[in-house]
């Protein structure tokens, strides 16, 4: 009898132990690559958000791998997939969408979301941020670390030049004029970076001039449109004609240091640099929307979440859970405050934390307000090649090797050749 | 089993492990690269197909390739002779009873053991316009700043200067070694004849160092085709490909554009360049340099 | 040799200072607060904060370990494979030896990174992407190593081998007891050249590694200092010094052997 009881108790204990450990053994493991393209220790922020997610979802293990810049992240994630290594989701460049589709690497979110709540979630983001994530009638990318270009300016320099520090340039003419006034022997008026992501800065100028760079299907580019050529003429003229900007290309990576050292009064840069500038500026600075030619304008930029095809349904469900967590209003608010990236949904700006932050630090809202004028970032099939064509054309024009018109006409011809098979 | 057979089998067995890896990572990929260059790049949606010389025709129409090839040649021409000349001067100096000779030799040699990536980070500071060291020094003398890496006319030159700095100390070592083997009696005799130092160098030292110079020359040129690490940090080949080099373009084509077939075609060009030099080395050095 | 003229001495020194300038700058930036990174004020206060920041922001300890494992693995593989192959070339007269040796020398010209695209594909088929052995594998059969050791083995008198054979030693025994001890200086030279080369190697590891667990120092440093993230001179200088410190320290300590090794490795 005693024996029977003992056995029963032992059995119950065993079952209990098994019952407790079983979910742990069924843990879903996720591997995710992500890039960082702007200043500050962002890897630590991502790590802490992942840790919070794991604490809230003990049945999911996330291995988040920092893979360098956007290009590195895409190379690494695709390489891992080709090598048969696990990767269920990644943050990658929003413009990688066509390459990822062509490589048959990703699934559309529409095919993974099941519930109405999930479908509503997919509609909860700023529409401008979805432009780069949608094609072929489906949503392939969900916004995460998204930015626009804003204008940082040194208010002390404005005062020094006799300009109103609360009135940053709002038009191209004002930018050229004020830039000229702000330029001294020791300081440039304005710098727009032209290495790293020249096509992105250029996307802002062309949008301001009333023209986008490509169609919505990623099969057509408009590099030789007169408004596009005029935009490059203006960019070059800032240096050659107005003498407000140094000639040649301006380095993306060192520009922030130039601004912080007071070597330029105005810089155009990603909103992703906002927090780093705020921390390190030894002077009074302001943040403004980019100026207008016929209208205001900026491309959106940055990284989206993608779900990879080669994964089980359970993994896809877990990955979706992670994406939803990382893009929730609270996380988005936290991410925005710690980095300067945009809160990706109107709800993020309704959180108390971000409301307080914006009230205390109004520049944090500039990028959001600018979304109204935003357009998609250059993204086509063969995107790496097409992008390099435009980058090279811009650099050729800025360094004076070719006229803007010649450079862009050549780039367009070459882009047509590359994209023809897709039409 | 005869002794001869045993020798044969043992010989091949000893060779086998190294041979497998050498074939696997040098000979096989070289041949496979050639085959790849005859096909188009396949994607999941559009499979690869035979295009014959199609990729090579693309080369001819690719203005970036023309520029990159020219840059690669210019980069070799700009860095190799300068680095060798400096190396020779360094070796001659360090070979004499210079005060603090050990320190000077150390200084010359140090760049050699630093990784190019680390070095590029430091040199980026030198070249940055406005706040960089070069412009700061220039400003002391009232010179206007210059956009060193942002100007298509200066960017390749800047990279060459850095490369010469990095490589000269390495080549110096070869000259030092050679100088120490030169017979002192010859120089003693020349001095007794009353020959000036320049004459001694021109008529005696330099000709005697010729085998070393040739050896260093070929290896330096071979090496210069492989030096692209700094581009990842400094310029990414820009502006407008003004500093782009062949191996970097191959990397970009393969890993940024995912165009493996075109990358293979570009690799064939690089292989051809290396092969020409390799044959040159074989013919020249076999006669002039004694490999013992 | 004679003592040079003062002017020449000055020139030699000036060049030496110029040659050290980049490293000196890195030292300056690394040991001063960021606001002095581009301003040279002799009174600027010294700090170790930049090193702490760099160490904190990226897993440099792990990168060090990876690099250490990588160079050790490569060296071990090279020593074994090159010794065996060099012995075959030096002492075994088998048909086709010269032709095979020429095929080996091809690798002197075509190093694995030139064939980066295809070698990457091979590695991926072997399932070795993002592993340290994967980075090491293409370098293990080194033509340079085979070439050097073959020269060294050829210099060993055949009588020694015959004597060992009389004592009953087999092929590998002879290699182990006769040839390898006599080639020790060549081994040392080759080891130093190999370690310093692979400590600094970048392109191939960049392509093969994906994660913190495999990335060597050079790749970690490049990602850390990628201008995308906005250049913070002081911290990058500190990180750079961290990365080069072991090799530079080793070089300072063993300067003579280093230079001798490069001489030995180069001259033959």
Describe the structure.
The complex is a heterotrimer of chains A (423), B (292) and C (268). Chain A is of the alpha/beta class and 423 residues long. Chain A folds into 2 domains: 7-146 and 303-364, 3-Layer(aba) Sandwich (D-Maltodextrin-Binding Protein, domain 2); 147-300 and 375-422, Periplasmic binding protein-like II (D-Maltodextrin-Binding Protein, domain 2, 3-Layer(aba) Sandwich), CATH 3.40.190. Chain A has helices at residues 2-25, 42-56, 70-82, 97-102, 116-122, 127-130, 155-160, 172-182, 198-208, 226-240, 252-260, 274-280, 313-326, 329-339, 352-360, 366-370, 383-398, 404-419; strands at residues 28-34, 60-66, 89-93, 106-107, 134-135, 138-139, 142-154, 188-191, 264-270, 285-288, 298-308, 374-375. In chain A, the strands form 2 sheets. In chain A, strands 1, 2, 3, 4, 7, 8, 9, 10, 11 and 12 form a 10-stranded mixed β-sheet that branches. Chain A has a two-stranded antiparallel sheet with strand order 5-6. In chain A, strand 5 and strand 6 (138-139) form a beta hairpin. The longest helix of chain A is centred in the N-terminal third of the chain and has 24 residues, at 2-25. Chain A is globular, with a radius of gyration of 24 Å. Residues 1-5 and 7-25 of chain A have low confidence and may be disordered. The two termini of chain B are 35 Å apart. Chain B has 292 residues and is mainly alpha-helical. Chain B contains 13 helices and no strands. Helices cover 72% and strands 0% of the residues of chain B. Chain C is mainly alpha-helical. Chain C has one domain (53-267): MetI-like (MetI-like fold), CATH 1.10.3720. Chain C is 74% helix and 0% strand. Chain C has helices spanning 6-31, 49-57, 60-91, 97-109, 116-125, 132-140, 143-154, 158-166, 171-182, 184-200, 203-208, 217-224, 233-253, 255-267. The two termini of chain C are 25 Å apart. The model of chain C has no long low-confidence stretch (mean pLDDT 85).
């Amino acid at each position: 009898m005693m024996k029977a009881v003992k056995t029963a108790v032992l059995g119950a204990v065993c079952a209990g132990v098994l019952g407790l450990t079983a979910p742990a053994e069924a843990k879903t493991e996720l591997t995710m690559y992500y890039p960082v393209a702007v200043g500050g220790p962002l890897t630590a922020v991502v790590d802490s958000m992942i840790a919070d997610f794991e604490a809230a979802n003990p049945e999911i293990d996330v291995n988040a791998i920092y893979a360098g810049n956007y290009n590195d992240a895409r190379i690494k994630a695709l390489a891992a997939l080709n090598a048969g290594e696990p990767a269920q989701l990644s943050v990658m460049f929003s413009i990688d969408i066509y390459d990822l589709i062509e490589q048959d690497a990703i699934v559309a979110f529409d095919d993974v979301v099941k519930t109405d709540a999930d479908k509503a979630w997919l509609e909860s983001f700023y529409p401008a941020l979805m432009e780069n994530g949608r094609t072929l009638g489906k949503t392939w990318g969900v916004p995460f670390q998204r930015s626009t270009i804003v204008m940082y300016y040194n208010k002390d320099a404005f005062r020094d030049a006799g300009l109103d520090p609360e009135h940053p340039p709002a038009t191209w003419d004002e930018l050229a004029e004020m830039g000229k006034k702000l330029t001294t022997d020791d300081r440039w008026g304005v710098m727009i970076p032209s290495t790293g992501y020249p096509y992105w800065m250029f996307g802002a100028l062309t949008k301001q001039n009333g023209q986008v760079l490509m169609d919505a299907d990623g099969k057509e580019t408009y590099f030789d449109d007169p408004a596009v050529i005029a935009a490059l003429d203006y960019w070059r003229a800032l240096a050659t004609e107005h003498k407000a900007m140094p000639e040649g290309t301006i380095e993306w990576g060192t520009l922030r240091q130039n601004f912080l050292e007071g070597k330029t009064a105005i810089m155009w840069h990603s909103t992703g640099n906002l927090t780093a500038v705020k921390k390190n500026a030894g002077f009074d600075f302001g943040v403004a929307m980019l100026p207008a030619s016929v209208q205001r304008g900026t491309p959106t930029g940055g990284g989206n979440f993608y779900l990879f095809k080669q994964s089980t349904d359970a993994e896809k469900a877990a990955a979706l859970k992670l994406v939803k967590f990382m893009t929730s209003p609270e996380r988005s608010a936290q991410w925005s405050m710690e980095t300067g990236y945009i809160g990706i949904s109107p709800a993020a700006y309704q959180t108390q934390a971000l409301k307080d932050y914006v009230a205390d630090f109004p520049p944090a809202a500039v990028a959001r307000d600018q979304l109204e004028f935003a357009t998609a970032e250059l993204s086509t099939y063969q995107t790496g090649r097409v992008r390099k064509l435009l980058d090279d054309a811009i650099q050729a024009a800025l360094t004076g090797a070719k006229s803007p018109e010649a450079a862009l006409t050549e780039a367009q011809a070459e882009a047509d050749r590359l994209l023809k098979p897709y039409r | 089993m005869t002794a001869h057979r045993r020798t044969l089998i043992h010989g091949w067995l000893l060779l086998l492990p190294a041979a497998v890896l050498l074939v696997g990572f040098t000979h096989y990929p070289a041949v496979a690269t050639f085959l790849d260059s005859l096909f188009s790049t396949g994607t999941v949606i559009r499979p690869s197909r035979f295009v014959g010389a199609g990729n090579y025709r693309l080369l001819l129409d690719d203005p970036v390739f023309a520029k990159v090839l020219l840059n690669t040649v210019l980069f070799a021409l700009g860095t190799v002779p300068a680095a060798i000349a400096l190396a020779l001067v360094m070796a001659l100096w360090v070979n004499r009873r210079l005060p603090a000779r050990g320190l000077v030799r150390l200084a010359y040699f140090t760049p050699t053991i630093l990784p190019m990536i680390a070095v590029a980070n430091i040199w980026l500071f030198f070249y940055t316009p406005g706040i960089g060291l070069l412009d700061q020094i220039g400003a002391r003398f009232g010179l206007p700043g210059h956009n060193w890496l942002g100007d298509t006319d200066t960017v390749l030159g800047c990279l060459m200067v850095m490369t010469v700095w990095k490589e000269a100390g390495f080549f110096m070592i070869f000259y030092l070694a050679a100088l120490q083997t030169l017979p002192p009696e010859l120089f003693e005799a020349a001095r007794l004849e009353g020959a000036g130092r320049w004459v001694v160098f021109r008529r005696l030292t330099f000709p005697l160092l010729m085998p070393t110079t040739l050896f260093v020359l070929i290896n330096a040129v071979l090496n210069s085709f492989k030096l692209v690490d700094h581009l990842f940090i400094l310029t990414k080949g820009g502006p407008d490909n003004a500093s782009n080099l062949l191996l970097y373009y191959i990397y970009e084509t393969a890993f940024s554009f995912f165009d493996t077939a075109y990358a293979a075609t570009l690799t064939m060009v690089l292989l051809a360049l290396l092969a020409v030099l390799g044959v040159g080395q074989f013919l020249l050095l076999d006669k002039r340099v004694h490999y013992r | 040799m004679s003592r040079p003229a003062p002017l020449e001495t000055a020139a030699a020194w000036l060049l030496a200072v110029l040659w050290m300038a980049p490293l000196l700058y890195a030292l300056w930036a690394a040991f001063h607060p960021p606001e002095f990174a581009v301003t040279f004020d002799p009174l600027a206060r010294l700090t170790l904060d930049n090193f702490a920041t760099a160490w904190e922001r990226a897993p440099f300890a792990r990168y060090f370990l990876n690099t250490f494992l990588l160079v050790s693995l490569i060296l071990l593989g090279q020593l074994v494979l090159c010794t065996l192959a060099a012995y075959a070339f030096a002492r075994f007269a088998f048909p086709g030896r010269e032709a095979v040796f020429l095929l080996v020398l091809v690798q002197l010209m075509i190093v694995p990174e030139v064939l980066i695209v295809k070698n990457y594909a091979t590695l991926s088929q072997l399932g070795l992407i993002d592993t340290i052995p994967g980075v090491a594998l293409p370098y293990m059969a080194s033509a340079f190593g085979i070439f050097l050791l073959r020269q060294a083995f050829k210099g060993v008198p055949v009588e020694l081998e015959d004597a060992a054979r009389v004592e009953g030693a087999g092929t590998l025994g002879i290699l182990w007891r006769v040839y390898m001890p006599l080639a020790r200086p060549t081994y040392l030279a080759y080891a130093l050249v190999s370690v310093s080369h692979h400590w600094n190697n970048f392109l191939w590891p960049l392509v093969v590694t994906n994660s913190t667990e495999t990335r060597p120092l050079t790749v970690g440093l490049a990602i850390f200092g990628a201008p995308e993230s906005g250049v913070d001179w002081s911290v990058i200088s500190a990180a750079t010094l961290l990365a080069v410190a072991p090799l530079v320290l080793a070089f300072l300590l063993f300067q003579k052997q280093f230079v001798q090794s490069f001489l030995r490795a180069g001259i033959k």
